[in-house]
Structures are given as C-alpha cells and as structure tokens.
Specification:
TIM Barrel; elongated; about 300 residues; single chain; 3 domains; alpha/beta; four-stranded parallel β-sheet; two-stranded parallel sheet
C-alpha cells in the first residue's frame, strides 16, 4: 500500500470474506489500512451471507474506527445484494460496487440499475445521487446481453422484458387511464420508448380497444364486445393462433447470439475457419459498440 501511494495511485483496501471474519480483527485491519494511507476500505460480503439489519450494524461499527470512505461489495446468494447495499448507504457507505444486470460470480452482484433507480425513485427517503444518466440503463443492459449471450430474466426489476409490461385486464385498464396507478417509474426514464400492454387471456376490453386503435380501427359498444369475445376464445384455446394474429414477438436477448452460434458451428470444421470467423465477428461487434457509445 505504501508503494502504491508513493507512486500516486488511489488505493482501496478490501478484506475478502469480511462478513465472516472475526469482528475485532476486521476492525483492526481497516484501521491499519487507513494508517497506511488507503483511500477507501471495502466491506466484501463475498458469499452473500448478510441481511440488511446485520449490514447496517457492521457498517456503523466500521465507521467508528475509520474516517475514510467505506465501499460495499455485496453478492446476491440470498437475493439481498441490493438491499444490503442500500442498508450500507443509509448508515454512511459512500461507494457501491455493482454490475449491469447484476452479473457476477455465482448468483451475481448488486445490480447497478436497481441501486440507481431505487435512489432516484425513493429520493424522499434516501437523498443520495449517483449522477447516472438513467435513460442509458436499458440500452446498456441490452448491449451487455448481446455480448455475453444471455440477458436478464424476463421479470428482472428495471430492465427485464416484463418490468413495464401489463397483461392483467384490471392493470391494463388502470394504466391506460392513469399510468401511475400501476407504475412507480416512467419507462422512458430508463431508456425505453414506452411501457407495453401484452394481449393475452388475462387482458380486458380496454387493452384490446387500445391495440385496435393503434392499428387504425375504432371499435366500441357491441362491435367491441363481439371482437373481445372472439379474442378471448382464441386467447383461451389457441395460443399459437393468437401469437400469429398479433404478429412476431420482439427479438429476445438471445436472437443475436443464436445467429452467431449457428454460423459459428458452420465454421467450426477447421481451426482456421473458427478463428477467422470469431475475429471478424468480434471486430464487427466492437465497431457497433463504438457507434452506440458515440450517440
């Protein structure tokens, strides 16, 4: 640490598996790190064992022995990485180590988009700012998904495919009348063009009327009732025909990767063909990434 500081580097001292380390030893380590001019100390919940209450206590105790900023590094083994990070913020942690889509070792790490939007939406209770340009959250999530061959689960908070989608009839009717009835965030704030109403067997007349109006058809009264009955018959009994009637679904996060793997297998007959194709594919992807970042 002294060598790094003598050469002008910013030093963060992180105790691996800090949350299962003897507490008195941990406090001595962090205090010594500050004495050796560390700029930050990091509390690493390496195995994701903590909960918000124990995190709050741990950070508050570490703050008693150090004056430099505290970082949180939380894993999601129990699904609490975001909650634990927020608990750390509330008691004074100044930095959160997080990842897009929450990717990481095993169950992943604290999800960047979730932390950012919690602090944005609940600024009334947690008045902290990340200075993140939130309309870039969804594009960043999609970009990462295209590069690592898989995306977040559909019900993933903030950036999942269903995060701003509504199928229940009562929900659809409520959102059409007043978006905030069932949405605490505007889809545009994370980079989507809008929310979406999914037409399915749980949908109601309001959503069907809205969909038909988008296609240029104005229906009401008995005409709407007749169309809705026919729609429900298809939705309840023939999902494949409904899907065909509504057109192709949006490309999912694996569409690009599926195309790549099909072509990859075609080139895998020889070692040279493999390498040549991979090189060309990655070069094309990097050019595309550059074009996205310059927008």
């Amino acid at each position: 640490m002294e060598y790094a500081k003598d050469h002008g580097l910013i030093v963060r001292f992180s105790a691996e598996d800090a949350t299962r380390t003897d507490f008195s030893l941990l406090k001595r380590l962090y205090k010594k790190a500050e004495e050796y001019r560390a700029d930050y100390v990091s509390i690493a919940d390496t195995v994701g064992i903590m909960n918000p209450r124990t995190t709050f206590f741990l950070v508050s105790e570490i703050k008693k022995v150090v004056t430099i900023p505290i970082c949180m590094h939380c894993h999601d083994d129990l699904g609490l990485a975001v909650a634990n990070s927020l608990a750390g913020i509330e008691v004074g942690a100044g930095q959160i180590e997080c990842t897009i889509n929450g990717i990481g070792e095993r169950a992943g790490n604290c999800a960047l988009e979730e932390i950012v939007m919690v602090l944005r939406v609940r600024a009334d209770r947690m008045p902290f700012d990340t200075n993140v340009d939130t309309p870039r959250l969804y594009p960043a999530s999609r970009l990462l998904s295209s590069l690592i061959a898989f995306g977040p689960q559909p019900n993933k908070a903030i950036v999942g495919r269903n995060a701003f989608a509504h199928e229940s009839g009562i929900h659809q009717d409520g959102v059409l009348k007043e978006r905030t009835t069932y949405e605490i965030m505007d889809a545009t704030t994370i980079g989507l063009e809008s929310n979406s109403l999914v037409l399915g067997k749980h949908s109601g007349r309001a959503a069907l009327r809205d969909a038909l109006e988008e296609m240029g058809y104005t229906v009401d009264g008995q005409t709407l009732n007749t169309a809705f009955k026919r729609f429900k018959d298809i939705a309840d009994n023939d999902a494949e025909r409904l899907s065909a009637a509504l057109g192709p679904a949006p490309a999912n996060d694996r569409a690009l990767w599926g195309t790549f793997t099909d072509r990859y297998e075609a080139h895998a007959s020889t070692y040279k063909g493999e390498i040549a194709y991979l090189k060309g594919w990655y070069q094309a992807r990097f050019k595309w990434i550059d074009s996205q970042l310059t927008k």
